[in-house]
Amino acid sequence: MTGKRILLIVGGGIAAYKACELIRLIRKAGMSVRCVLTDGGAQFVTPMTLAALSEAQVHTSLWDLKDEAEMGHIQLSREADLVVVAPATADLLARMAAGIADDLATTLLLATDKPVLAAPAMNVRMWQHAATRRNVERLRDDGVRVLEPDEGPMACGEFGPGRLPEPEAILAAIQESLSKPFVSSEVETRFSTSLEANGELRGRHVIVTAGPTHEPIDPVRYIANRSSGKQGFAIAAALARLGARVTLVSGPVALPTPAGVDRVDVETARDMAAAVDAALPADAAVLVAAVADWRVKPSGSKIKKQGTVPSLALAENPDILAGLARGPRRPRLLVGFAAETDDVIANATAKRARKGADWIVANDVSGDVMGGADNRVHLVSEAGVEDWEEMPKEQVAARLADRIADAIA
Questions:
Q1: Where are the annotated segments for Phosphopantothenate--cysteine ligase (predicted)?
Q2: Is there a domain that residue 199 lies in?
């Protein structure tokens, strides 16, 4: 994300104070941020505060003689890589949906040719009002990615959906939006829709595992693999956008939690097996994690070099996929992953039969797939083998999530 430019529009609501933490997180992630503060937003935070945090000029007026002499609103609308509206109030969403351009914020939103991400915040009744729902649907149809608000107690004393997502969740959505190609396609439409507009999996619970496991040898060494967790995290995010309640069981990775996902961090294969069991029952499980096959009995102190190679006695780790398939609380749909370097289809087909999975998603990891941005997979099921073209991991995730929705919705 280093060098990416964010234009942050701060709307008028009590949640505007969270924009301060969001700015800090954006900059910590290596991105720059410029702020546009609406009149309403200025009732809650000051231009001085945002300027100090962003280390950049804060823009407040369409009628700034110096800026507008240089067509400042056009320049602002085009120079960012992503435009973020947070908080996006009910009024601001309504004006965006109607194409109104009566202040700096709405004018540059109408003038921008860059992707737009909106994080709503408002009273629960306002969020659930038919007018707001229509406005959100219109914006999503227009290609704006509108996040789902969090649910919880509000400043007004009521409880329900309408809270601004936490800054960490907004940052994760920003990073996800910047990491995928913005193209006009069916896939992009799926990315632009979120829980309410694309709720095929609403009411369903899906468990996703992701990343590697670390099996300790001593306090400073461990057995691991090269899994980055990117594909599993992308799948968790795609399922959440389809309305599923997602439990993401993650090995040690440095990735932000996808918006709307419940995350459980683990270290070892046994930790992961226990976390998956604790998350049951579930309608589906997608086991993407590259779980270490073996473990050793760890030493309590660092093993010293003494001129001889230490002997490590390996023990087999629990087979999470096979255990789920044979267990009494087997999910209705069980999807495993097979990372292979040779005979990809044959090995994946055999793995599906051996483990008792419904589907196996197989890929050739002999290149730079582990840690890379793209993936080419084969979906192995009872019906046969589907060969998918190489695509960004986010698109693989969106396509697989759609298939899962077809199977269990």
A1: 206-409
A2: no
116 and 253, same domain (yes or no): no
Say yes or no: 172 and 219 in one domain.
Answer: no
Residues within the annotated binding site? 293, 302, 318-321, 337, 351, 355
Query: Is 187 inside a domain boundary?
Result: no
Binding-site residues for CTP, in ranges, read 293, 302, 318-321, 337, 351, 355
Name the amino acid, one letter, at 3: G
Measured at the alpha carbon of residue 405, what is the angle toward residues 246 and 124, in degrees to the nearest 5? 55
**CA–CA distance, 321 with 292 (Å, rounded to integer):** 13
Residue 380 to residue 346: CA distance in whole angstroms: 10
Marked catalytic residue, from 156, 183, 346, 353: 156
What residues make up the domain containing 335? Answer: 205-408
Distance CA 4, CA 32 (A): 6
Give per-residue pLDDT as tens, 193-246. 333 334 689 889 999 999 999 999 999 899 888 889 999 999 999 999 899 999
Q: What is the pLDDT of residues 299-320, one digit of tens each?
A: 888 988 888 888 888 999 999 9
Yes or no: say if 393 and 370 are a contact pair by the CB < 8 Å rule.
no
Q: What is the domain count for the chain? A: 2
Residue 156 annotated in active site: yes
**Neighbouring C-beta atoms of residue 131, cutoff 10 Å:** 12
